[in-house]
Amino acid sequence: MRSQIIRFGIQTTGDTKMIDITERVRQMVRDSGAQNGQALVMTLHTTTAITVNEGLPDLEDDIVEMLQELAPADRNYRHARFLHSDGQMAVNAPSHLRGALLGFQCAFPIEDGELVMGGRQTIYFVELDGPLYREALVQVMAT
Amino acid sequence: MIDFHTHPVQVADLFDDDPTLTRAVQDVFGLWMSPQPLRTYELHIEEAGADKAVAVPLDCTTAHGMTVVSNAQIARLMELTDRVIGFASVDPGQEGAADTLKRDVREYGLRGLKLDPALQQFDVADADRAFPVYQAAAELGIPLLIDCGLSWAPKGRAELARPLALEPAIHAFPELQIVISHFAWPWVDEAVALALKHRNVHLETSILNSGTPPESLRLALDRIGIDLLDRSLHAQVVFGSDYPRVDPKRVADGVRGLGLRPALERKVFNDNAVRLLRLEGTAA
User: Fold this and answer.
1) Are A130 and A12 in contact (CB under 8 A)?
2) What is the pLDDT of residues B111-126, one digit of tens each?
3) B31 — contact with chain A (CB < 8 Å)?
């Protein structure tokens, strides 16, 4: 079993965006030369998420709306203050909580050099506090 | 719509040409976030709903031996993006600061002057050092954006940034348009008093204390009464975010959440800045 880590960047363009990265991940797995094993897809940020769902615009909108209802912008959060270690106002608690709800990674099997996915499954990189240049990675653990 | 107050201290393109900028941004300005592509800066402006943003440098040569983005770098930024309205900064503690201001404004096409007495550590009422700079700005016909109130910069000294200390300069240069940033929080009353009396004194919206921008704005403006903005200060308030201390989208949301009359909101977001920057007739 061998491990490869492939890092990649995403320039997000708005506050909240569901970005389909399925083909990008598939291609990274192919390019890795891995045959059989597993691919972990992970974001390197706490105000973004990785999630899997059916790739339909209406569902994307429903997911965003659900997140905004569960972690609304105007609640009295503790994380609403100046963060001295950054030199910025840390007023993005909803973004963190929405990320916590979706999670930060997903994993798929690799079989004969291809990602094994359900026909309706789409891998999303979810921006929750954009616009920002973001980083994510795919770890391929395979033979 | 114009964001009247942004610091391009996270724009990676500027760091590429200046290895000392990281130290200035961290040690003097006090920001420890990774640089981002220029595109992110542009997108932040767009996400707030703005078309353009004032980008400010800061010359801290006397107090800290460095600049936190130079006038030349602002000029470079203006070449890279049409989203930016460039301001100049000079250090009143340096010989010939007024001449430097005149030269750079004319050479680079800069449209305003930025001073931060807390961080640059000068007396705003110093007739020998500060007044010649104000005089130069007045002669150039450019506005002065001056930081007042709490300075989040680690080396900033808020005692040098009390709004009332500006009164001698306001009296001496009635033609100089002065924009007090942050509503001078926590000295909002002083800043508002100056603006009520002097029509060349303006207030900028990036009130940053503890809490979200909507909360901070509401708390500060409820104290003075929001109606006062419509009645007496409608031509003297401009939207500014102080990016990257806080994201422009959040300050913009805070202003939108105040429930201002549409005509007043339009003045705050756009018309007052257009007039101060003399952008009438241009695509601002």
Assistant:
1) yes
2) 999 999 999 999 999 9
3) yes
CB-CB under 8 Å, B210 with A81: yes
Which one-letter DSSP state was computed for residue B277?
T
Say if residue B16's pLDDT is above 90: no
pLDDT 10s digits, B67-110: 999 999 999 999 999 999 999 999 999 999 999 999 999 999 99
Domain spans of chain B, in order of start: 2-276
User: How far apart are the CA of A127 and the nearest CA of chain B, in angstroms?
Assistant: 13
Q: What angle do CA A14, A18, A20 make, to 5 degrees?
A: 125
All domains in chain A, ordered by first residue: 2-69+100-142 (2.60.120.460)
Contacting residues of A for B244, CB less than 8 Å apart: 88
| Domain B2-276: homologous superfamily in CATH | Metal-dependent hydrolases (3.20.20.140)
* A87 with B29: Cβ contact below 8 A: yes
B255: which 2 tokens? 């202003």
Residue B168 identity (one-letter amino acid): P
Contact B75, B84 (CB under 8 A): no
pTM: 0.95
Contact B270, B236 (CB under 8 A): no
Residue A29: both structure tokens together = 């797995």
pLDDT at position B283: 52
Q: Which of B24, B13, B113 is nearest to B71 (CA)?
A: B113
ipTM for the assembly? 0.93
